[in-house]
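ok so i was messing around last nite and threw this chain in just to see what happens. nothing serious, just curious
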Amino acid sequence: MADNKIPSLNLIRQVNPESAARNPSFYKAIGLDVLTVASAAAVGFFYNWYLEGKADLATLILCLVVFAVFSALQLLLAKSFVRRFWILVLEVAAVLGFFYSYNLEFLAITGGAALVLLSWGEMRGRSALENGLEIKFFSAAGPVLRKLVTVLSFLLVVLYLPRLNQSSIFMSQDNFRSFFDFTNGVVSNFYPEINLNSSFGQLTESFARLELETNSTFRAMSPSDRAAAIQQVSSQVSNSLSKILGVAISPNEATSDVFYNFIVGTLNGWSEKFGVWFIFGWALTVFLIIRSFGVLFYWAASFMAFIVYQILLTSGVVHIIGEARTHEIAEF
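result:
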């Protein structure tokens, strides 16, 4: 009689360990989540340092762009909205975590408002993906990035308000000088004769020379007479600006410092005069300014996110598959 062996009932041993391994896309999704939250934390960290004068504006903008790129990729590659919602919670917490010294209720309200706006943008982006047969990157990422720009503008203003006082009512003097240098570069393209990085006396002389050189009588003068005329007009311009700005100006003072002191002095005067209404109006003004520059940021971030997305497709990290209804989705 043949010896019939009873098959083993140990199902654990029959499972191939390789088949039980996680799908590689699982780890890629975890990696994307970690990088997204880390980029949000970098935004909070460097903005806190920026407010303390320890970080420059360029570093902060770079962190904001990186965060925006990861946010756009999350829309395309995170399939579950519930999972994505909790990542949004971690993102908001990562940004606000570096402002732990603030009032807890203030942070909770700020975080809640940011989370609502981010979730709104996420839902609109996912709706655009679901309603299209093909992945249209800019149509899908647009709502997410636009809401992200609004949220970031909101957070930058709201997190700045608790530190608002006479010494920090405006940007730091070093950051203002950097902005002034950039402005000088733009102005010099149109008026090479004007150098905003000079002393205030040299600036008024360049204005005087630019004005007088259009006068035929001035051009006919001797060099010494032209120099005297330039000095006279320069003094008149300096005195007029001193009256307009309401401050005494030294000719040897840097032009950027003159305008910085004028702006800070004016804002402090308004703050003392209008109190809480000034804070509200100043916060709204700063928000509108940041949000207007956010249009440029939106297009830059969209372009960078699209390039990264194309690189991931080309390298095979992300690939597009067609569903039964010929609806394209992106996955790891």
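not much to say yet. The CA atoms of residues 231 and 312 lie 62 Å apart.
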